[in-house]
């Protein structure tokens, strides 16, 4: 694993606007950014054009990693509901030239494997018409419950633009191991949301969505996990997605500074 840089996921600074996320990512050394589709559409409603938004990113030296996330419109999920539906997310990705959209089966009802694979395939074909990759995010207790099952779904979709978006919290909550990461065919992981968790803490009621510690502040073997993920796909960008009460309650600038300090400590402690 070579030089290590980490970008920013929008949920880490949940009260920040699009402009704040771009400016803070640049100022605190987070070179890539994932954005929720609502933030993109809100900025358009505020008067920006897609060209203006792309210029803000370019001037800041920040690149888009992906739009996060499609959580409606698949079998087992709610009907297509803006801004979490495929069309809204594809539009947001195209406006900002993001290469990928994240897809989660969050709060989905159980559906058959074949039905879900067919739905994923249709979504991926639609994404391909927009020039986009799709990252399926395994989340325990959903239709994408773990790495192995989600990889089977991605393959069963039959579409080459479909891979996995990895989050250590969900990996741990599913009872997965580093060996499960290493068992994946090279290149199957297409996105990496970096966080830590304290495994002795009771799980939150939202399928592990919250209580994601900053790297090095939880109990996961996070460097071992990180090395396994990046060995699967050395071309990955990595984005920080820590959802904690502390970061939620801090103003965005203070939250970004807190993240930068934690990342510097974690990277300095990297095993040799």
Structural summary, described in words:
The chain has one domain: Divalent-metal-dependent TIM barrel enzymes (TIM Barrel). The protein has helices at 18-27, 37-45, 50-60, 86-96, 113-129, 147-156, 168-173, 178-182, 222-232, 245-249, 252-268, and strands spanning 7-9, 32-35, 63-70, 100-103, 133-136, 162-166, 189-194, 238-240. The model has no long low-confidence stretch (mean pLDDT 95). The chain is 41% helix and 14% strand. Helix 4 (86-96) links the parallel strand 3 and strand 4.
Distance between the termini: 11 Å
Structural class, judged by helices and strands?
alpha/beta
**What do the pLDDT scores average to?**
95
- Strand fraction: 5-15%
Helix content percent band? 40-55%
Number of individual domains: 1
Précis, in short:
The protein has 272 residues and is α/β, with parallel strands linked by helices. The chain has eleven helices and eight strands.
Keyphrases for this structure?
globular; 11 helices; single chain; 272 residues; TIM Barrel
């Amino acid at each position: 694993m070579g030089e290590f840089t980490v970008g920013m996921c929008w949920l880490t600074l949940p009260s920040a606007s699009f402009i704040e996320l771009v400016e803070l990512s640049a100022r605190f050394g987070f070179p890539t950014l994932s954005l929720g589709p609502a933030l993109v559409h809100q900025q358009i409603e505020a008067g920006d054009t897609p060209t203006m938004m792309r210029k803000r990113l370019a001037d800041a030296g920040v690149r888009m990693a992906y739009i996060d996330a499609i959580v409606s419109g698949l079998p087992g999920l709610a009907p297509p509901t803006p801004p979490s539906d495929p069309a809204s997310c594809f539009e947001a990705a195209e406006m900002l030239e993001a290469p990928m959209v994240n897809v989660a089966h969050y709060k989905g009802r159980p559906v058959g494997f074949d039905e879900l694979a067919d739905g994923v395939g249709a979504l991926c074909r639609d994404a391909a018409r927009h020039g986009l990759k799709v990252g399926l995010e395994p989340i325990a207790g959903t239709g994408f419950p773990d790495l192995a099952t989600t990889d089977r779904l991605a393959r069963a979709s039959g579409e080459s633009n479909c891979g996995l978006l990895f989050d250590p919290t969900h990996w741990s909550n599913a009872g997965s191991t580093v060996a499960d990461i290493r068992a994946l065919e090279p290149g199957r992981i297409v996105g990496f949301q970096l966080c830590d968790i304290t495994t002795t803490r009771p799980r939150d009621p939202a399928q592990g969505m919250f209580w994601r510690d900053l790297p090095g502040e939880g109990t996961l073997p996070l460097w071992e996990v990180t090395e396994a993920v990046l060995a699967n796909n050395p071309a990955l960008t990595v984005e920080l997605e820590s959802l904690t009460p502390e970061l939620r309650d801090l103003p965005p600038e203070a939250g970004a500074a807190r993240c930068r300090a934690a990342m510097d400590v974690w990277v300095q402690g990297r095993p040799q």
